[in-house]
Write a structure and sequence with these properties.
Elements: H1 2-24, H2 46-53, H3 56-60, E1 73-76, E2 79-82, H4 99-108, H5 123-126, H6 131-143, H7 166-174, H8 188-198, H9 204-207, E3 230-232, E4 235-237, H10 252-261, H11 271-279, H12 286-297, H13 329-337, H14 344-352, H15 354-357, H16 383-391, E5 393-395, E6 405-407, H17 416-428, H18 439-450
Antiparallel strand pairs: 1-2, 3-4, 5-6
Protein name: Cytochrome C
Binding site for heme c 1: 56, 59-60
Domain Cytochrome c: 42-145, 188-300, 340-430
């Protein structure tokens, strides 16, 4: 008994010492990964370009709020995290931050006050950015963004996630390796794409799975699970590599067009990806969009072809409707016959969906996505598909494709049983092979929307 008590006492003491160390021992900050002169200045426009590449606007601007003034709620498994004000306001923003303090936030997840940032801020990825890009971004935020006085709502997570010093221990697990960018290819275009995907673009934040500790399971090319698919807000995020990755069926030009506009001949962006395109990717140069597409297409060692010099070329385009392929012929024949005794799901599709997505399920290029082989339609979790049927979706206007596309929702037109039948039909038509949807799953999705 005495021995057990002594062991327990030692463990308690070690726990106390560890807690004190996490709270009070100074964090060892990462030094710059690039040697620059003290008076180095970024060329005009570079800072804003880095801001766009890093998608700062999407997270740090609340709906209806001032740009970069924070206050947007970001959902996490631990609760809602409220984004900070990163305008140069000296009272509520980052106006008093030094370059070293800004770098610490970008690379180590430590604020000017010494508090650890919640990893909703993707410093796991930003740490691979060059010192010149970090300094360019700092200069832009400090001198070109309008200061806005906005006291952001404090993030209040439940115990133990409210103990920010514990994030330091999380960082020891999550931030593996040094912060220097390591090109995996001698090809300059692929290396530029890798730099953008790994760093500022922080693609792994959504497209890599998470470990048991909620760290990104793969942040760089050499990591086994890098970009092999993730989960965001309970929804599956598609893989960007591997035989089953949807983009493997796209050309390099089609992938670059999707990044630039949120649409191509196969898919339409929605949710967080639509936001990334609206606030970030559409502003990248044709060269950088082609670089990202080239890197992603060649990620598993494939030969990359069809690299565009101009992405999503403007002007009228004649795109004939695609015919049904062999896998989709039976469904197309069923819908074309429009027999009065056709199954409920097929009838609902004909009444509500066929005018846009056609009886072939092929849709219209860059306007209505194809449903045959559609990633969302075939997802293990039917929630995203059901949510779109209920609530609709929209694709933002971009400079290269100004038309804003909107799909209406059918929550007020179809009941739970009908939505379940329609979704089940889409998941099994044209050769699709996915499980049926139940009215209970539809009811859950409907109530989740009402609870927002």
């Amino acid at each position: 008994m005495n021995k057990a008590l002594r062991i327990l006492g030692v463990l308690v003491l070690l726990a106390i010492l560890a807690t004190l160390a996490l709270r009070y021992v100074p964090v060892r900050l990462t030094p710059p990964n690039e040697a620059l002169a003290a008076d180095w200045k970024a060329e005009p426009g570079r800072g804003e370009y880095v801001m766009r590449a890093g998608d700062c606007m999407a997270c740090h601007t609340a709906d209806g709020g001032s740009p970069m003034a924070g206050g947007r709620g970001i959902a996490s498994p631990m609760g809602t995290i409220w984004s900070s004000n990163i305008t140069p306001d000296k009272d509520t923003g980052i106006g008093n931050w030094t370059l070293d303090q800004f770098r610490a936030a970008m690379v180590d997840g430590v604020s000017a006050s010494g508090a650890h940032l919640y990893p909703a801020m993707p410093y796991e990825n930003y740490r691979f950015m060059s010192e010149s890009d970090i300094r360019a971004l700092y200069g832009y935020l400090m001198t070109e963004v309008k200061p806005v006085k906005n006291e952001v709502q404090a993030t209040q997570l439940s115990f133990p996630f409210n103990l920010r010093f514990g994030i330091r221990a999380w960082n020891w697990l999550a931030l593996s390796g040094d912060s220097a960018f390591k090109a995996a290819s001698s090809d300059a275009l692929q290396s530029r794409g890798q730099y953008l995907v790994e760093g500022a673009g922080h693609c792994a934040a959504c497209h890599s799975p998470r470990t048991a500790f909620m760290a990104q399971d793969g942040t760089r090319v050499g990591d086994a699970n890098f970009l092999t698919g993730g989960v965001l807000d309970g929804w599956d995020v598609p893989a960007l590599r591997g035989a089953n990755a949807p983009i493997q069926k796209w050309s390099t030009a089609e992938l670059a067009a999707y990044l630039a506009t949120g649409r191509n001949a196969h898919a339409i962006a929605n949710g967080e990806m639509a936001l990334a395109i609206e606030h970030s990717l559409q502003y990248l140069s044709d060269h950088d969009l082609s670089a990202m597409a080239t890197f992603l297409k060649g990620l598993d060692g494939q030969a990359v072809q069809d690299v565009p010099t101009q992405v999503a070329m403007p002007g009228p385009r004649a795109t004939p409707a695609a015919d049904a392929d062999q896998a989709g012929q039976a469904t197309a024949k069923l819908l074309t016959a429009a027999s009065p005794d056709m199954p409920l799901g097929a009838r609902l599709y004909l009444d509500n969906c066929a005018a846009c997505h056609f009886v072939t399920g092929k849709g219209a290029a860059e306007i209505f996505p194809e449903l045959q082989g559609n990633t969302m339609a075939l997802g293990k979790d039917p929630g995203p598909l059901v949510s779109v049927i209920l609530n609709g979706t929209a694709v933002p206007s971009t400079d290269r494709r100004p038309m804003r596309l909107v799909m209406q929702g059918y929550a007020d037109r179809l009941n739970d049983e009908e939505v379940a039948a329609l979704a089940s039909f889409v998941r099994s038509a044209w050769g699709n092979q996915a499980s049926a949807v139940t009215p209970q799953q539809v009811a859950k999705a409907r109530s989740a929307k009402h609870g927002e």
